[in-house]
Amino acid sequence: MPDERTVHGAISRHAARQPDATALVAAGEPVTYAVLDRASDGYAAELQDLGVRAGQVVPTLLPRSALLAALQLAILKCGAAYTGIDPRWPVERARMLVEQTGSPVVVGGPSPATAGLRTYRPEIEDLAAAADRGGGFTGPAVDASEPATVFFTSGTTGRPKGVVAPHRAVTRMFTEGGLAGFGPGHATPQAAPLPWDMYAFELWGQTVAGGTSVLVDGDHLMPGMLRELISRHGVDTLWLTTSLFNMFVDEDEDCFAGLGRVYTGGEKLSPHHVRRFVRRHPEIPLYNGYGPAENCMLTTTWPLTEADCDLPGGVPVGLAAPGTRVILLGPDDKPSAPGESGEICAAGDGLAVGYLGNPELTAEKFPTIDVAGTPVRVYRTGDVGVTDDAGVLHFLGRVDRQVKISGHRIELGEIEVAVRALGGIRSCATIAVPGPDGSAQGLALFYVPDGPAEADGGDPLSIRKQLADSLPSYLVPAVVRTISQLPVTGNGKLDHAALTELALQPRRRGRA
Question: How many C-beta atoms lie closer than 10 Å to residue 434's C-beta?
Fold first, then answer.
């Protein structure tokens, strides 16, 4: 049997122990652990014949499905890592990510993004039929420290960064003594976007623990759909980004009835919505979950109470998740004492191997520091926090221009790089537009055209359309406006407050 600390090793062991238990529910139909394991064996053998080997990163361009899960599992059995690419993304974006992997084969397609590349899609896509002919695959020995998956995140240079997560980073939170709500008898919807680390949380979190992942049809989980999943498939553990959580509470706060627990995060929580949930559902534990992809999925969690809503700095982000250690570093890179702010750094089994093909950035963001005389490898998040006397972590803000909106981590500089590449732009600035609670709710782009804005397709509507052709939707600003010059403060720096005020004003013919 493969190492149980690997994703495929854990699932294979569950297939041996409880073969008839439901691993997945797809299109309303159950897929047992035995079927998932045997089908992935067959696909792994075919991938190995095509040249997939240990240490490679194989892109998948398929929609959410049981087939996709089985193929990703097959890639892992070959000793390789997978990266999920949304097949609906702009061709240029998808091709850029595929090229970064350097893989000899792409799973899915063919599509314009894979032109000239070898693609693989199995002849037998029904997992039960594939399981009948599969089984018995013997792959290379894989250690839990080896890469399992790559998450591409926004980059300041305009080139997405590939975060390489090892197996143990995925499995660490779902072993015995891990997060509540995972394992036999538990079920979670899988609705997070394919390229995101919370996709792994919702899919592998349950299946490596012996529970059930229920694949959601379509792009988004909505309140009515949640009600159905609870009643039909016994969903009892839920993850929602902060924005979705707020929307669910606003639209249908009773849709959570029947759940055993809710995890939410990805952005600063709204005390107003947390208070409403806690009062309406005192019997359902609500957890704040915080963490960057570089420390896979979650770095801290915190069971929320109504008292947390009254704290001056907002609700806490909590205590370290299983397999994780949190260290705050002050200006001298020495650990901060309780009550002293510092940069939040993560350590432990959740850490990424590094950035794909970027050893310089890996060395910069994953240094080894001295903690009480012991060398510790950490990830510097760029977030600022403080711990209270009980060791509970509180988030204070960012040290750079990175924001999170609807769970997506966004480098504002990446958008500006894309805008300048369009031509006809003298200068530009992208800002995060705050919502009523002060957290980032959307993006606004202001640009100074190099000539009349209407010339050569340089009007705001055309600019936005061109960005939509090259960037995923979450990176395309909702507000795009021309401006005669970018405002600056008295010390000559960009006046973010003035731009925010302009962004919040009613739109006038697409211009500021």
Answer: 14
Residue 255: pLDDT band (50, 70, 90) is very high
User: What are the φ/ψ torsions at residue 130 (nearest 5 degrees)?
Assistant: -65, -35
Which of 411, 418, 470 lies closest to 113, judged by CA? 470
3-state secondary structure of 232: helix
Residue 333 lies in a domain: no
- Residue 325: which of 237, 387, 267, 261 has the closest Cα? 387
The more confident residue out of 421 and 276 is 276
Sign of torsion, CA 376 382 383 386? positive
Q: Residue 461: enclosing H or E segment and its boundaries?
A: helix 460-470
**pLDDT at res. 1:** 64
CATH number, domain of 500, equals: 3.30.300.30
Q: What CA dihedral angle connects 388, 390, 393 and 397, to 10 degrees? A: -10
The answer to whether position 230 is within a domain reads no
Q: Does residue 452 lie within any of the structural domains?
A: yes
pLDDT, position 508: 44
Nearest alpha carbon to residue 213 among 198, 224, 227, 196? 198
**How far apart, in whole angstroms, are the C-alpha atoms of residue 204 and residue 17?**
17
Q: What is the residue type of 383?
A: D
409 touches 293 (CB < 8 A): yes
Q: Do the domain assignments include residue 445?
A: yes
CB 167 within 8 A of CB 145: yes
Q: Range of 430's domain?
A: 403-504
Helices (H), 340-448: 359-365, 412-421
What DSSP string describes 22-48? EEEEETTEEEEHHHHHHHHHHHHHHHH
Name the one residue in this structure whose structure tokens are 């041996």. 16
Q: What DSSP letter does each residue of 335-363 carry, written as one string?
A: BPPTT--EEEEEEETTB-SEETT-HHHHH
User: How far does the chain reach from its first CA to its final CA, in angstroms?
Assistant: 63
| 294 pLDDT above the threshold of 60 | yes
Q: What is the 3-state secondary structure (H, E, C) of 180-208?
A: CCCCCCCEEEECCCCCCHHHHHHHHHHHC
Q: Is residue 53 predicted with pLDDT exceeding 90? A: yes
Please give the pLDDT value at position 10: 97
- Say how many domains are in the chain: 1
Q: Number of helices and strands (H, E) in the chain?
A: 14, 27
The DSSP bridge partners found for residue 103 are: none
> What is the spatial distance between Cα 147 and Cα 447, in angstroms, rounded to a whole number?
41
Average pLDDT, the chain: 91
